[in-house]
């Protein structure tokens, strides 16, 4: 690959930069300034065909290596990412508007950790065997855990580098090839992943990038040469991906949205509870899938909770994401900004009590930019759209409750179930509530911590499959059972 990348940015197919044949391009903008960072070429159906052919060829060579050899390559890639930490973090902040306080660890380190983790697991991927005839040398079977082949990855814009790594690392560790389509808003950091993987020794064709909008995503989901789609995005898009994948019966991992609950009990350490609620709502401008946007607070501690929360929410520093002092950057785009403000206006019209925030900041330096002040509502009606719909912005809703069963019933009432949290000093209650929350991930006395070792994913309409942890390997491999008959074949005819 070349440095700097050509403009408009090409595709990455078969280990080389390749101009798209569509003739179409799109622009990626800096959310803070609105300036064009780069133009990017849109893949055509023929380009996707070429990517699939290159991936199939690359995958054969890659899968022929031992797990240990693949792991060694991926471990080198992890090191190369760490060596480019500042550069990748800066690009993520520039392209995604995320504060530079966040991107070095939440994005870059998380991506490197993921590659290192699956590098270490690569030599352990294998099957099992079992005797069926006792010790007498009778029949037995063994299983082979095989790669799926070519995996299509479709990413969201909120954690572009991290998502690319979380999808690619387990897939490659298991011997698959990846064709990755970043979200249009944040198409750039995937090129760095392509560079480090190539430099580390991943063969050509094992990691490919196709760029473009939903049309290109649909080309991946429809393609008969792709065995699996690993998708991150909205619930409704996930349903479309699932429907489109049915024609070729692809395996799916769907990492979708949520409206997760955080339960604050009367015995919780309230400073910690406020910290968790802040982490659950305002990190990355609130644009996090697992966010605990419904904060159920026991009515006995409601006033104390709010009196600690509001000053801390109001003290959050908004600004240029590249300024090290900035704690909250702009939302990803003017369209998304308008959508978040519309949700807020609707909630006010519906009668929810706006406690703080609710609109753009007054700082003239931020005027006209897609900022939303950290916003806190108090609501008493779970049926409001505010309490049911994913807003994907810095909007927290505090909902008082009186009893544990009531809080759990309300927490579990939605069709989504990505995550949840419980703040309490009562050990028994903490685990009881964790067991009863309908969620793929539950945090006890913290929120939004996602170590690579821990499986990650949703239940109900928040998704299928798991990323991270050993569990991820089950979703990028298939089992072949091999039955072995050492004796004569007994046929009835
Ligand atoms: P989105 O609109 O659903 O888009 C996600 C990706 O799918 C983008 O690359 C998009 O392309 C592509 N796409 C759109 N329509 C498609 C189709 N019909 N077939 C195939 N691909 C299609 O989601 P987003 O706005 O980027 O991301 C925000 C959402 O992601 C939120 O709901 C959030 O909760 C969720 N999310 C979930 C997780 C998780 O792990 N559970 C993590 C992060 C985000 P374009 O680039 O053209 O839009």
UniProtKB/TrEMBL annotation:
The keyword Oxidoreductase applies. Residues 20-482 form the Aldehyde dehydrogenase domain. Keywords: Oxidoreductase. InterPro entries: Ald_DH/histidinol_DH, Ald_DH_C, Ald_DH_CS_CYS, Ald_DH_CS_GLU, Ald_DH_N, Aldehyde_DH_dom. The active site is at residue 255. Its EC number is 1.2.1.8. GO terms for molecular function: betaine-aldehyde dehydrogenase (NAD+) activity. Belongs to the aldehyde dehydrogenase family. This is Betaine-aldehyde dehydrogenase. It comes from Roseospira navarrensis.
């Amino acid at each position: 690959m070349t440095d700097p990348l050509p403009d408009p940015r090409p595709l990455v197919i078969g280990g080389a930069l390749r101009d798209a044949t569509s003739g179409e391009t799109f622009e990626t903008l800096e959310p803070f300034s609105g300036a064009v960072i780069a133009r990017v070429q849109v893949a055509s159906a023929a380009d996707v065909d070429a990517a699939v052919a290159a991936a199939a060829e690359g995958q054969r060579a890659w899968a022929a290596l031992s797990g240990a050899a693949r792991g060694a390559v991926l471990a080198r890639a992890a090191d190369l990412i760490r060596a480019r930490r500042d550069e990748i973090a800066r690009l993520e902040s520039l392209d995604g508007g995320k504060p530079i306080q966040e991107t070095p660890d939440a994005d870059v380190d998380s991506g490197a950790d993921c590659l290192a983790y699956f590098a270490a697991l690569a030599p352990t991927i294998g099957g099992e065997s079992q005797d069926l005839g006792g010790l007498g040398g009778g029949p037995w079977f063994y299983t082979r855990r095989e790669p799926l082949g070519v995996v299509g990855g479709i990413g969201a814009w909120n954690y572009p580098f991290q998502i690319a790594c979380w999808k690619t690392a387990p897939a490659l560790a298991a011997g698959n090839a990846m064709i990755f389509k970043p979200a249009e808003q944040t198409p750039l950091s995937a090129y760095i992943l392509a560079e480090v993987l190539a430099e580390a020794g991943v063969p050509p064709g094992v990691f490919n990038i196709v760029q473009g909008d939903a049309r290109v995503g649909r080309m991946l989901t429809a393609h008969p040469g792709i065995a699996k789609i690993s998708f991150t995005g909205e619930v409704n898009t996930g349903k479309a991906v699932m429907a489109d994948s049915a024609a070729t019966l692809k395996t799916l991992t769907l990492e979708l949205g949520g409206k997760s609950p955080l339960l604050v009990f009367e015995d919780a350490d309230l400073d910690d509870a406020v910290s968790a609620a802040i982490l659950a709502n305002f990190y990355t401008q609130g644009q996090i899938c697992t966010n605990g946007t419904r904060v159920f607070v026991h009515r006995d501690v409601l006033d104390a909770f709010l009196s600690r929360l509001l000053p801390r929410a109001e003290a959050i520093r908004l600004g240029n994401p590249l300024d090290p002092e900035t704690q909250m950057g702009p939302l990803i785009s003017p369209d998304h900004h308008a959508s978040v403000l519309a949700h807020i206006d609707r909630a006010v019209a519906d009668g929810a009590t706006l406690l703080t925030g609710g609109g753009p900041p007054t700082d003239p330096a931020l005027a006209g930019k897609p900022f939303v002040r950290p916003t806190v509502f108090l609501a008493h009606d779970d049926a409001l759209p505010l309490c049911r719909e994913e807003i994907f912005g810095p909007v927290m809703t505090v909902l008082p409750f009186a009893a544990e069963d009531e809080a759990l019933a309300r927490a579990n009432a939605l069709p989504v179930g990505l995550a949840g949290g419980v703040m309490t000093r009562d050990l028994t209650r903490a685990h009881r509530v964790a067991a009863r929350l309908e969620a793929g991930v539950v945090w006890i006395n913290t929120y939004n911590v996602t170590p690579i070792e821990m499986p990650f994913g949703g239940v109900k309409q928040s998704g299928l499959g798991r990323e991270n942890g050993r569990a991820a390997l089950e979703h990028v491999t298939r089992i072949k059972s091999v039955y072995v008959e050492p004796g004569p074949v007994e046929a009835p005819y």
